[in-house]
Amino acid sequence: MNWLGKVVGGTFGLFMGGPLFAILGAALGHQFDRVMGNVGLLQTDFVPGTQNRAQMAFFTATFAVMGHIAKADGRVSEAEIKSARAIMDRMGLSADMRKTAIRLFNEGKRPGFPLDGTLDQFRSECRRGSSLLRLFIELQLEAAYADGVLHSGEEQLLLRICDRLRFSRFEFHAIKARMEAELRFARTENQYSQWRRERAAGARRTSTSDAYAVLGVTPSASDQEIRRAYRRLMSQHHPDKLVANGLSEEMVKLATEKTQQIRSAYEVIAKARKL
């Protein structure tokens, strides 16, 4: 990740201020202190609105808030830790990036974590990218579902996060419904070869039903509505659009994965409808 290499490499300093700066500084520890001695060189790379700064804000907020949500019910479960690590694996993080992500996750678990300030600054840094906010919420929801259940305390915290980011609660619930379907659909797709061999009618009905939910439509939707929903979701998660809004190459891997899930769901529906 370009911005982290600049920060920990010691080539120049970073002084952005605010909670995100403090959280990242705590996560990087002595490496960050060493770099801060070089403040003044090429600081324009981290002025508000630049891609490096948006990348840093997204990465820092994603894993710190993820840790905070994991602690919402009073303890962090093994499933939640595994879920966070699985997301790191899917991103293909380097060893240094992975260590930083884990430290950010731990910072989020600490008492007194400045959630509101972190969200305010994150929203400010990503002001050009509603797609970034959507992906951020999706990742937080995915981590919250680590044990297969979204607990009441976790959902209330997620709604508070949405309110702080000025992210629509209606869209949050739509994402939640799609994610629940995606989780079911992914499990079905993992067994797709066996399903084809056995021609299990029940599995076929479940897969198609979940595919509709992944696209955020009902089985009664017209072919045109299904195509429109498919195109909208693909546009929202298109990697090129997210990169333009400041997403890093590691995060793009998750966005690409999401587009594959959306495409797979559409293909199931298209086959069932003979589109």
From TrEMBL:
Classify the main location: membrane
* Pfam families registered for this protein in UniProt: DnaJ, TerB
**Is Glycosyltransferase among this UniProt entry's keywords?**
no
Q: Where are the transmembrane segments?
A: 12-29
What do the Gene Ontology cellular component annotations say? Answer: plasma membrane
A molecular function GO annotation = protein-folding chaperone binding
User: Which residue intervals are topologically Cytoplasmic?
Assistant: 31-275
Output the InterPro entries linked to this UniProt entry: DjlA, DjlA_DnaK_co-chaperone, DjlA_N, DnaJ_domain, J_dom_sf, TerB-like
Give the record's membrane topology: Single-pass type III membrane protein
Q: Which Gene3D superfamilies match?
A: DnaJ domain, TerB-like
Residue ranges occupied by any J domain in the UniProt entry: 210-274
State its role: Regulatory DnaK co-chaperone. Direct interaction between DnaK and DjlA is needed for the induction of the wcaABCDE operon, involved in the synthesis of a colanic acid polysaccharide capsule, possibly through activation of the RcsB/RcsC phosphotransfer signaling pathway. The colanic acid capsule may help the bacterium survive conditions outside the host.
What does the record's free text say on domains? The transmembrane domain is a dimerization domain.
Assembly information from the UniProt record: Homodimer.
User: Which protein is depicted?
Assistant: Co-chaperone protein DjlA
Gene that produces this protein:
djlA
